Queue: 2 jobs
Job 1
Amino acid sequence: MSTLSVAEIENLKSTARKLRRDIIEMVYRAGSGHPGGALSVLDILVVLYYKVMCIDPASPQDRERDRLVLSKGHACPALYAVLADLGFFPSDWLWELRKTGCPLQGHPDMRKTPGVEMSTGSLGQGLSAANGMALAARLDNSGRRIFAILGDGEIQEGQIWEAALSASHFRLDNLTAVLDYNGLQIDGWLRDVKSLEPVAEKWKAFGWNVLEVDGHDYTSLLEAIKKALEHRGAPSMIIAHTVKGKGISFMENQPDWHGKAPGEEEYRQALAELDTQEGEGVR
Amino acid sequence: MSEKIATRDVYGKTLVELGRTREDIVVLDADLSKSTKTALFAGEYPQRFFNMGISEADMMGTAAGLAASGYISFVSTFGVFAAGRAYDQVRNSIAYTRLNVRIVATHAGLTVGEDGASHQTLEDIALMRVLPNMTVVVPADGYQTRQALFELVDYPGPVYLRLGRPKVPRVILEGTVFQVGKGQLLKEGRDVALIATGIMNGMALEAAAVLKGEGIDAAVVNIHTIKPLDRRLLSEVAADTGAVVTAEEHSVIGGLGSAVAEVLAETCPVPMLRVGVKDSFGESGAPDELMQKYGLTSFHLVEAARSVLRAKKKKEGRPPK
């Protein structure tokens, strides 16, 4: 895992555009779901899954694999798109998201979906589970790494702060959490509903190694993750500043797109925008 | 009857015993390890013990993460916190995920005593048995607690094991086989069935002795596993006796009595009464006095048996349509 070359960055951008198309397609076909948070977290997942994590879709239960807990479970269209692209399950499944009998549930289910490490959806619970996985890795004398992806609205849950204390108390330096800080929650801007600020200081005060990055910049993200993995003696929190609905102009920074599927017109427009970006080579 | 012993004391000792050979056992507690007796395990195997502090929700999630990584997690705190405070964590991170977490909850029921209603869970059986995938076990005494722990270590999926605070008498005879989901006929009888769980088994046996003096032949059934429930045994004793009394140190809503009523309503409806706490919170007091005040003694079981026998006679006396 070294610095990204120009070609690698272009590859990641291209992958992300494809995955964004998948997310739009999935949610459109499902007729419900959470596109906003899926689009904001996607670039974080892309860097982790394509450049950092040691995983093998052919043996998803390998004891030594790295683990990622998507604590903000409602963003699962992004995770499903990544897992399908990597080959954890057939891509056909994506188009049945949220349909009766489909293994891809509205929120992640570890028993139904290969590659999903923990069932989440009821917010605030994933960090505790990730802590447990980090403790297990230590008991096993294993070098495997544990990642937890938290939503910004999610960390209004008290359990997150119980888990924050635990991770630093147990010095879980094999744990890296990433905060998808898009600033929006269902009812509006976090700063209006219930502010997190000063959020970096809070995690520092809880004993974490805190890094702050642009959550859509692959080079910065990878650098922060590297620093987090090298840090000893404390867990790391990467505060990733993101844009809710990232990549689709009319979804960006709009609270309404937290949990709503695009209609036919919006669906076409979203795909057209992604096509244009592909042509222009921008993300 | 041998010396009295608290089920939580047996738990602490048995965990140490299990931990000796089973390196995949980890134990978590939320600052109550001296009371739940997990401190004994902590003393022997400090690397595999995690004191999570006063954070029950976090503890349940952490136990799930350890279990998802191949460990068998024993999680302990008082019943009121395990089943109540951390309910959503138990539901979503443990039951829904079918992980091998053993929630061993101590200090259940009225016999918590002086600490009062805030600490006396009378709802935990109801809360746990309604969860899919959850196994719910309430051992009758210390002997059965040890047997249950050995049996439950490798039982697939999540388990809620309900233990108490005080020392309780031995009721299970040496050599009695413990099998998850299999009720035990502690005493045979033809006239009425006393169906008990946990410490109420002792009282059911006492009540049966009193009833015998009155010429009433009472059966005593120990339902140590509330879920999965032994439907066959319950239906058989109901059919054999034609009258049922349930007994639990728990609310009459949602616990053993409700579970038995659900089965018998479908398989063998007979006159039935539920002995338990009548939809109320507990209060501070000496455990024995509270059990008396809230109607959970052998005397109350005798009364209920007489009453249900009157209903049975009335039913039998009813002329056919």
Job 2
Amino acid sequence: MTGIELLSTFFLLAGAGFFFAGTVGLLRFPDVFSRLHALTKGDNVGLGLTVLGLALRADSPAVIGKLLLIWLLVLLAGATASHLIARSSLRRGIEPWRAP
Amino acid sequence: MNPNPALASQAAPSAGWRAWLRRLVLFTLLWWVLSGGDASGWMVGAPFVVLASWLSLELWTSYRLSLVGVLRFLPWFAVQSVAGATDVARRAFDPRLPLRPGLVRHRLRLPSGVCRVSLANIVTMLPGTLSADLVDDELVIHTLDIGRDLHAMVEDLEPRIAGVFGLRFDDLPQPEAPR
């Protein structure tokens, strides 16, 4: 395994780790708002590292561009969806969980 | 129509050749990425690059991205993203589940539209904060740690976003007195 492949594998595994952490947060956190924290931040960095790992193995610069574009669109969709879920929860009168 | 001198120069009534050039380069690059660098696609791609440039100038002329601002912003955002994800991962894996959530309201100085929406989206990726509502100039932030000074955090973020859109933050009007 070359150095580039090793680095790529490291990024892919680290990305998977952040996706896993986001899912653990989704299951463990107490309310809708804190769960959104775990998902949006975990997905942002999880996918970012996955894209980075794949970019190191890409055959052409156009493929790297496409991977970055995917990351950007997922980031935009994730942040927007999270904002809309949080907003509609607040406007429905759902109180954020508070530490006892 | 627009009393703010920092913004007046941004709202061009008709697109100049520089704006055209920027959009053409952008959409050419986009087509190149989407077609995977295949040269035979340009017969189809070229007309649509022109069409997309024209359409985007019709729909969006109010602000333009500043390349310098974007390049300054990206490394900072990358570091903050990793810090945010690491922070939330640490809380998720900790058996005691260390969360002290709460809501904070902050009045923004950035102009409405794409600047404020970008700020709201970026706040969500920063450590411990989530944009939960945006009503006029007031951003509602949900935080995982109510002990932190979030007003200082947003005030640090606003000039960075202004820079991405080529605005000078010091020229923007002061916010109204807090309610």
